[in-house]
Amino acid sequence: MCVMNFKRRNFFKMICASPLILLGASRMKTFANVALTESDPTGQALCFKLNAKSVDKKDARCARFEPSQNCANCQLFQGKPGDKSAPCTIFQNKIVPAQGWCSAWVKKA
Ligand code: SF4
Questions:
Q1: Alpha-carbon distance 10 to 104, whole Å?
Q2: For residues 72 and 85, is the Cβ–Cβ distance under 8 A?
Q3: What spacing in Å lies between the alpha carbon of 74 and ligand 1's midpoint?
Q4: Can you tell me which atom of ligand 1 is nearest the CA of 48?
Q5: Chain segment 19-54, per-residue pLDDT in tens
């Protein structure tokens, strides 16, 4: 009886969570078609720039920047070599340009 209740409870939890999972998945798809802008609040917090050449290292948020870094050589850039833009996982798959940069940059493996 107790096992039955446990299984039933888990079943109902799963049913209740399903719409939330689907909603999350649909939002990810939506962001996949949205370009990240420099005015995005998360982008501003992470010093996101559409072009790495415009990064100001004197800005404390951008202090990690090195001239060799850009979105194209970042592990979180989801594009293939040569793509001009692609989704970025740290920004919920919003589109970033290959020549962009932010302080979450991680060397591509
Ligand atoms: Fe570009 Fe990487 Fe920052 Fe995403 S995490 S915006 S790919 S530097």
A1: 37
A2: no
A3: 6
A4: 6
A5: 444 444 445 555 678 999 999 999 999 999 999 999
